[in-house]
From TrEMBL:
This is GNAT family N-acetyltransferase. InterPro entries: Acyl_CoA_acyltransferase, GNAT_dom. Keywords: Acyltransferase, Transferase. It comes from Nonomuraea roseola. The lineage of its organism: Bacteria, Bacillati, Actinomycetota, Actinomycetes, Streptosporangiales. Residues 122-261 form the N-acetyltransferase domain. It holds the Pfam family Acetyltransf_1. GO terms for molecular function: acyltransferase activity. Its EC number is 2.3.-.-.
Amino acid sequence: MNPHDTLALFDDQMRRHAQPDDAHATLHLTDGVLRQTSTRQGWNGILWSDLDHTTADTAIANQISHFAALGHDFEWKLYAHDQPTDLAQRLIAAGATPEPTETLMVAAISDLPTTTPPPDGIHLHPVTDPADVDLMMQVHQQAFDTTATHIKHRLLTQLAEAPDTLAAVVAMAGTRPVSAARLDLHPGTHFASLWSGGTVPDWRGRGIYRALVAYRARIAAAHGYRYLQVDASDDSRPILSRLGFTALTTTTPHLFVVEGL
């Protein structure tokens, strides 16, 4: 895998020509940015931009006006190679709050292990209904100390309206959910993406995360995808590197809260 070419392909397929991520969302290319507008519970934000020092401030102001008129908070998903080079500073000056930076990592699925079993005492349970989503939210609460209602809304919407784009799984220790993760499939692209991977504290370090990556890689391969992509935290990056993922760039969400603008 050539990192430069793979990043260019990712930018083209997953950003510049992205598809709406739910049935209630629309995409609009304006002012050199591609934005998604959804319901207040959905994801609203900027996926891609092609700006320079003469156009950036106006584009930022126009996106703020658009979402403020709707009363929607939104995210500008900024990548390290986006232009102009001071775009992060311009976003912050306009009122954005940066979230923790993550690393965009990609692996060729053909290079990944797909048969890694879960550790003893763990069985993997596919997520197929709202009760299973509740199990995932139990894990998320314990793993990240947050309720993540927006993730629950997304999962329930996907299951109801586009189940063929989702494969989610919960790792169970008996009747207790101890880890969970999801795979998003992106039709028309070479990429499937890993999201929401988390393990409760007392089950970390036992190989569950690796088993969940293998489980999702196997599903992506069966659907004909070429690459797996993940926005990796500092905790998961070393594990993913050992599995064969390559760091391509970094991404930092910049959040705009409309009430504060």
